[in-house]
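Teaching assistant here, posting this on the class forum so everyone can see the example we discussed in section. The complex has two components, and the goal was to see what a joint structure prediction looks like when all of them are supplied at once.
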Amino acid sequence: GAVVSQHPSWVICKSGTSVKIECRSLDFQATTMFWYRQFPKQSLMLMATSNEGSKATYEQGVEKDKFLINHASLTLSTLTVTSAHPEDSSFYICSAPRGNRRDQPQHFGDGTRLSIL
Amino acid sequence: AQSVAQPEDQVNVAEGNPLTVKCTYSVSGNPYLFWYVQYPNRGLQFLLKYITGDNLVKGSYGFEAEFNKSQTSFHLKKPSALVSDSALYFCAVRDRNAGNMLTFGGGTRLMVKP
């Protein structure tokens, strides 16, 4: 069964709305979670690394004020797309590694398809 | 810096035939290598990984991959393809001496035709 839960699966909303996406690790604690963005027929682009109890680390070119990340507990990270516009429409995926060992695979949520009208 | 290349955007194969999805990588140190599969509107599912030891790694759903250090490759293979294998496949690498960040290849769409 799924070990990382992502919610919601689909969001359709008007331009200017802020949208929150949740990523939960279900049976393990994750001090680090990752947020990706995927455009149609393309690979995953790492947006930011979410760190429990501290600020997220953003990749170059990702607007911190547009994509707010909060890692409030060891099992929950949230991504808020603030004042979303049509160009923010995309597929957003979170992942979390189980433990600190680098040889372990990351576990991915099922993604959130965001459509801004 | 680490990078991954998947030279084929799409691979077409007939059901029952063997399949290969190619992957080459570049890291400064020794790599951890992973293959993931993505079905439409879903996240990524882990298939297999190479950490150390035997160069031939077996994973889920009958997939396997061969690590070739001299060619810096980690091609995904399956002896007999199924129509249900049709999906998007991603190769990923992590430097053993770096953090938890995975670097993904561009993805290869596998189409298995009946």
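For the discussion questions: Chain A has no helices and eleven strands. The mean pLDDT of chain A is 91. Think about how each of these relates to the inputs above.
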